[in-house]
């Protein structure tokens, strides 16, 4: 195994485990009341007091696979899943559902099913399933990724590695798809969307900071159960790590007028970074609310920096939205902004909001530790000591 302090382009060699696991994000779909034809597919007719619903799991098959929920307040709920993919339900394909399923948030607390479909070196494909109630309606959810895991020793610590596996091709492409590595040495990989321990590659080699080292994955050999990582110089690490309390590094961008600007121009003011795109309905719908907050708090030292993620062909549409919604604050746009958003911040959900204080420190990210949604943003700014327009005029 390679040691500590390797020069750039040196290698770390690790091993892969034989077990596959399922992972977030969830794919969800509404279930509908089952027809007599649906019920006839079951190996036994449900009790008269039961309600029966049918839905599809978006796993393995392109067009999904049928699942039937039998809901009985007195007898307990259970789910039929066509595990062997033969187009019908059998007695052994009946899975009881736990009573606390609506509180389940993690995949290891959900119903784990091994579908009888080969995936790489395993004869089955794992998928986690949840069923949740929304009033009189039911939502059927399943995980969307299959991961292969392993370990590599870096800085004298065994680091967990995880890679998204394509079951159709039976390979892991380290330049495409989700991957994660235990950067802080706690034995786990944080898969959350803002975590520096995970990212989704898009035709690129992603560099992670792992302890004192900087590494990317060169090859993942499933047959040999071997993974090779390459070391990098610190200058190759471009990711902006989003940690509350840390100072956000400066960056340059081009605004909607074509002028080159820098983040540090906003020092001395609270700044809301609003990551948006013209194709993001909630982003556009939120602009009038942001305008109200901006008008009320900007005289007291508040600014908004819109971070636009549109491709070049959609820039005209984005500019039209800015004019139509009177979003008069600064917007970073174009290829430079996209690189910052996609490669440095690695923002996945839109909209995303990040609040900075007067020194450029991260106060909050989305809802943690303070809520930044339009319904709570004004209260959060007041908690930070900012005053609304009327109060500013009084002083």
Report the structural category: mainly beta
Helix content: 10-25%
Find the CATH topology of the largest domain: Glutaredoxin
Question: Domains counted in the coordinates: how many?
Answer: 3
Ends apart, CA distance between termini: 66 Å
Shape field: globular
Q: Segments where pLDDT lies below 50 for 5+ residues? A: 1-5, 99-106
Radius of gyration from the alpha-carbon trace, in angstroms: 25 Å
* Strand segment tally: 21
Give the strand content: 35-45%
CATH superfamily of the largest domain: Glutaredoxin
The count of helical stretches stands at 6
Order of helices and strands: EHEEEEEEEEEEEEEEEEHEHEHEEHH
Query: Residue-averaged pLDDT, rounded?
Result: 91
CATH class of the largest domain: Alpha Beta
Note the main sheet: 14 strands, antiparallel
By CATH, the architecture of the largest domain is named 3-Layer(aba) Sandwich
Structural features:
14-stranded antiparallel sheet, single chain, 3 domains, 395 residues, mainly beta, five-stranded mixed sheet, 21 strands, Glutaredoxin, 6 helices, globular
Characterization of the model:
The protein has helices at residues 36-39, 281-297, 315-324, 335-345, 377-383, 389-394, and strands spanning 11-33, 51-57, 65-71, 78-81, 94-96, 111-115, 125-134, 137-154, 157-164, 176-181, 198-202, 208-210, 213-221, 226-231, 252-254, 260-262, 270-276, 302-308, 330-332, 352-356, 362-365. With 395 residues, it is mainly beta. The protein has three domains: 11-19 and 146-236, no CATH class; 26-143, no CATH class; 252-394, Glutaredoxin, CATH 3.40.30. Helix 2 links the parallel strand 17 (270-276) and strand 18 (302-308). The protein is globular.
């Amino acid at each position: 195994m390679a040691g500590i302090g390797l020069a750039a382009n040196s290698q770390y060699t690790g091993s892969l485990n034989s077990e596959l696991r399922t992972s977030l994000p969830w794919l969800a779909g509404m279930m509908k009341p089952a027809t007599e034809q649906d019920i006839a597919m079951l190996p036994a007719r449900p009790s008269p007091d039961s309600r029966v619903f049918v839905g599809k799991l978006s796993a393995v098959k392109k067009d999904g696979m049928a699942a039937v929920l039998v809901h009985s307040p007195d007898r307990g709920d259970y789910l039929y899943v066509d595990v062997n993919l033969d187009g019908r339900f059998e007695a052994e394909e009946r899975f009881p559902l736990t009573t606390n399923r609506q509180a389940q948030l993690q995949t290891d607390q959900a119903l784990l099913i091994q579908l009888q479909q080969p995936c790489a070196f395993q004869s089955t494909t794992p998928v986690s399933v949840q069923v949740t109630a929304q009033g009189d309606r039911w939502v059927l959810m399943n995980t969307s990724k299959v991961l292969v895991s392993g370990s590599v020793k870096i800085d004298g610590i065994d680091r967990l590695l995880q890679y998204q596996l394509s079951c159709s091709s039976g390979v892991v492409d380290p330049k495409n798809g989700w991957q994660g590595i235990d950067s802080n040495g706690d034995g786990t990989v944080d898969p959350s969307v803002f975590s520096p321990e995970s990212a989704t590659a898009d035709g690129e080699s992603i560099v992670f900071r792992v302890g004192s080292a900087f590494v990317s994955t060169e090859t993942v050999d499933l047959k040999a159960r071997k993974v090779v990582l390459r070391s990098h110089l610190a200058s190759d690490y471009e990711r902006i790590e989003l940690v509350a309390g840390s100072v956000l590094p400066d960056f340059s961008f081009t605004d909607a007028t074509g002028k080159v600007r820098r983040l540090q121009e906003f020092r001395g003011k609270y700044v809301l970074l609003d990551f948006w795109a013209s194709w993001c309905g909630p982003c556009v719908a939120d602009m009038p609310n942001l305008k109200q907050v901006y008008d009320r708090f900007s005289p007291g030292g508040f600014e908004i920096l819109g971070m636009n993620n549109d491709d070049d062909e959609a820039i005209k549409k984005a500019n039209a939205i800015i004019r139509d919604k009177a979003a008069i604050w600064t917007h970073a746009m174009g290829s430079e902004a996209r690189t910052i958003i996609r490669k440095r911040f690695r923002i996945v959900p839109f909209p995303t909001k990040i609040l900075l204080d007067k020194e450029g420190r991260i106060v909050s990210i989305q809802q943690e530790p303070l809520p930044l949604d339009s319904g709570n943003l004004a209260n959060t700014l007041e908690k930070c000591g900012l005053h609304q327009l009327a109060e500013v005029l009084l002083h």
